[in-house]
Automatic annotation (TrEMBL):
It comes from the Bacteria. Gene3D superfamilies: 3.30.70.100. Residues 1-23 form the signal peptide. This is HMA domain-containing protein. It comes from Phormidium tenue NIES-30. It holds the Pfam family HMA. GO terms for biological process: copper ion transport. Keywords: Signal. The keyword Secreted does not apply. GO terms for molecular function: copper ion binding. Residues 24-91 form the HMA domain.
Length: 96
């Protein structure tokens, strides 16, 4: 009986972990981003979006990393539009 109860408890705990939404990370390679002013503009643009938890800009590697909040979504089109509106071009986008 103890084994049966332990099995039920273990199964229930595994099910609860599988239903938790993991935060998504989006890395965007950006063409034309060359200075700290560029980086600040991109950070400000994405920082205003409710679904974005953190924005990291690497000027040397020309990428923007967006950490989304748990369960939040942000479409590729929205990301491209924000970067284009800031005057830059998306070269590549990866989601993890």
């Amino acid at each position: 009986m103890k084994k049966y109860i332990a099995h039920i408890v273990l199964s229930a705990s595994l099910l609860s972990f599988s239903s938790v939404a993991l935060a998504e990370e989006v890395t965007v390679t950006v063409k034309g981003m060359v200075c700290s002013f560029c980086a600040q503009g991109i950070k400000k643009t994405f920082g205003k979006l409710e679904s974005v938890e953190n924005v990291e800009v690497d000027l040397d590697k020309k990428f923007v990393k967006l950490d989304l909040k748990d369960g939040a979504t942000l479409s590729d089109e929205t990301i491209k539009e924000a970067i284009n509106d800031a005057g830059y071009e998306v070269e590549k986008m990866e989601r993890k």
